[in-house]
Amino acid sequence: MALPDELVLARPVESVQARRQGRRWRLAGYLAMALAMLVIGLPVYWTLIAAFKTSAEIYGPPTWFPQAPTLANFPAAWNAAPFARFYLNSFITTLGGMAAEVFFAVTSAYALAFLRFPRKDLVFLLLLAALMVPVEITIVPNYLTIARLGWINTYQGIIIPGAAIAYGTFLLRQAFKALPYEVIEAARVDGAGHLRTLVSVVIPMAQPAIVTMALLSLVAKWNDFLWPLIVTNTANMRTLPIGIYWLRNSEGVINWGVVMAGSLFLIIPVMIAFLFVQRYIVEGIAAGAVKG
Amino acid sequence: MSGTSGGDRAPVCIQMLVREEKVKGDPPMEQRKLTRRQMLRVLVAGSGAAALAACGAQAPATGPAPTTAPGGGEAQAPTTAPATAAPTVVSQTGSTVNITYWGSFSGGLGEAEQAMVQRFNEAQNEVKVEYQFQGSYEETAQKFTAALQANVIPDVILLSDVWWFGFYVAGAIAELDGLAQQAAVDFADYEPVLLNEGVRQGKHFWIPFARSTPLFYYNKQLWAEAGLPDRAPETWAEFSEWAPKLVVKEGDKLTRAAFLHPNGASYIAWLFQGVTWQHGGQYSLPDFTMTMTDANTVRAAQFYQDTAGKLGWATLVQELNKDFIGGVGAAMLASTGGLAGITRDAPFKVGVGFLPRETSFGCCTGGAGLAIPSGTPDEKKLAAMKYIAFATNPEQAGIWSRSTGYMPVRISTKQSPEMQAFFTENPNFKTAVEQLPLTRAQDAARVFVRNGDQIIGKGLERIIVNGEAPATVFADVNQELSTAAAPILEDLKAVEG
Fold this sequence. Notes:
The complex is a heterodimer.
Chain A: H1 5-13, H2 16-50, H3 55-59, H4 73-80, H5 83-114, H6 120-132, H7 135-148, H8 155-159, H9 166-177, H10 181-189, H11 194-205, H12 207-223, H13 226-231, H14 240-247, H15 256-286, H16 288-291
Helix pairs in contact in A: 4-15, 5-9, 5-12, 6-9, 9-12, 12-15, 14-15
Chain B: H1 2-24, H2 28-62, H3 73-80, H4 87-93, E1 97-103, H5 107-123, E2 127-133, H6 137-150, E3 156-160, H7 164-169, H8 177-182, H9 192-195, E4 199-200, E5 203-204, E6 207-212, E7 214-219, H10 220-225, H11 236-246, E8 248-250, E9 253-256, E10 259-261, H12 268-278, H13 295-308, E11 314-316, H14 320-325, E12 331-335, H15 339-345, E13 350-353, E14 366-371, H16 378-391, H17 394-404, H18 417-425, H19 427-435, H20 444-447, H21 452-464, H22 470-496
Parallel strand pairs in B: 1-2, 1-3, 10-11
Antiparallel strand pairs in B: 3-14, 4-5, 6-14, 7-12, 7-13, 8-9
Helix pairs in contact in B: 5-17, 12-13, 18-19, 21-22
């Protein structure tokens, strides 16, 4: 038999009762997963089918499939506002913002995890405090700063206030701390400077954490609504979430089919990004220190 | 389990990886110390420079005092430049004045608003308006608050009924009478009930633009099935007689209500305003004395509670218009602003009528109006007033009203042949307009007290949904409103004496 030793050994020890219990737990696990899928998936499904429904059907009794599927919502949404421009703006601000956030998070987390400097604990405490401040509080001071810099209605105005987020630094610092220190020591012994250690040792080993953090940052910036709305004025600087908001009526009856079609514009690129990037999270776990 | 084995093996690879550098680079230990110190020094120097830069940037912005700058337009221009990239350049050449207009209209309303701006820009070449969407009424007001502090303000701003007063008290919006005279605006032709809401101490601050009122909506199909006459009920007593015929119940559960209430977030306090007046009560007196505990106000709340409780023919829903269209309820009070959309999307014929009476008739106004920030330079103020004059002239008021469902703000608009034709085609809209002269401005408690709308709305939710005693709840609400009103009253004294 090609069975690994542990398995062959484990079998006789395991009692029937334990196995049954294990199966029960596994069933509970599947149930929980199905429930989570339902809770997360249902709104997405509802968005998807609503985009293909007529307004009358949406306002009628709920239906699980579009009774008279229509594609009219998509051109209606696309033509209601300059969505091509919104896409461009969203790409620029999201990718630029994410790159900046990842860069600052990686470098600052490295400093907090591996460098020795006075009052490091205080700096970390400050970071934790910044983590607790709700975004809404910082909007007005940020707006004033950006306005005085003359950055209202510019890309840097959208990107810079979110370029360094305490959350990213905190997440990566914890991840860096968990890395096997011997590896880093070994690199030092071999004469690696800080930059070399960071690029060749820390980043590859912490890849899953960095990719996860980058993805979280990507989604947060892609979906960010309030700050871009406040810091921009003209339609040619607006991002996708504001475009979708524009599709809603401020008073009276909202044409939900068109709004949902617009929401799909927003969802699809992020979903593609997720499908593409998620393997790096898995690969990172498999690689890292073990395989080197 | 894999951690230890990984830890053992990895260093070997790392050594191999970094060996290359060791050969090329200097001894790293010494260098590291140096860079750290250098780095700290750079950091300190950098933050100092940043602070200096911030001061430098601040100086020109606060230098020319925003409201009293003797230099007028030119002094102001550089500070507003970031918000309106193009305008400053053009306005200095003296040919066209470019102004920005912040508004809250999106979707169909946004398109109608852009069309209005376009007509204005094409009709003359002295002023060019740029319409900039700023989110909901709340977001627009919040952004305006921040913009005032940063001094990057628009030249025309749309403010809703609950927001303009706060900016008036803060001295942030300008008195418009002088400008109106220059722009030849005839205030006598505006619907007095709408115009007078924006008047303080005989001066105009807020010009009615997108104004609506509550309206009684009913489902004609369900009305016919119940054998009711094809009209809205005259009184609440009459509707209480009709309601049992409209209700569908499964056991104790109401599957179709005769009447729908909205929740607090959907402005139930606005719709309930008229109902309190119908019962002889009110939210507050003009001097900001809260009267939520007034016997008649409580009686109105008791009636609202009974509709959902004892009488059992009404229910509170999260999405009023959607549920009415979906047939969850047979009737509702809702804004005239939704009339066109509801008529279009409902699979049944929609009927409307005046609000039912109790001891008297009562119906309030609502919606938004236009204002000019006091920080706007004089030259732009006049340009802004010209736009407001255009947007509310009898012809444009008619176009806006017909394309959106808002009330025509001009008296003469109603007589125009286009409007008469529109009334013939849309008798429901005619009903809404006919109710307008009977409406009145809302009580200070809802519109002038910060968050007053939500305070009253939450109270009504407690009464209708939780079934708490109206007198107790409204005593709490009264207290909360009085507390919230105190600072505004103080500011108001400072402004109006």
